[in-house]
Design brief:
Number of strands: 4
Structural class: alpha/beta
Radius of gyration: 14 Å
Largest sheet: 4 strands, parallel
Length: 106
């Protein structure tokens, strides 16, 4: 059984093909901005989440699914991800930040 990854926006087809080889991919509606309650529903049964900058990934959203294994954020910055701002109190796996190959980390 494949693990499920939820995308909160429409990503390029190549991303769907790459993810689809190893995961069941669910693309949520891209109309409007998701609020916290919608995000809780979106992650309820997911193993992974790939969100965008306008999606609030709050402590409440993360708590809605204690089995959520990974969160990816397709944006510049991580201010919308509660794990980053509250890393010292998170009871999850360590946080990793990746940087663009075009610009080294600062």
């Amino acid at each position: 059984m494949k693990q499920t990854v939820v995308l909160t926006a429409q990503f390029p087809e190549v991303a769907l093909r790459i993810l689809g080889g190893d995961f069941d991919v669910i693309v949520q509606s891209t109309e409007g901005i998701h609020d916290e309650d919608e995000m809780k529903e979106i992650v309820a049964d997911a193993d992974g989440l790939i969100s965008i900058l306008t999606d609030p990934v709050t402590r409440g959203v993360l708590a809605a699914n204690p089995n959520l294994r990974i969160v990816g954020n397709c944006a510049v910055g991580v201010d919308n991800i509660a794990w980053w701002r509250h890393a010292s109190s998170a009871s999850r796996s360590p946080i990793r930040r990746t940087f663009s190959p075009m610009r080294p980390p600062t």
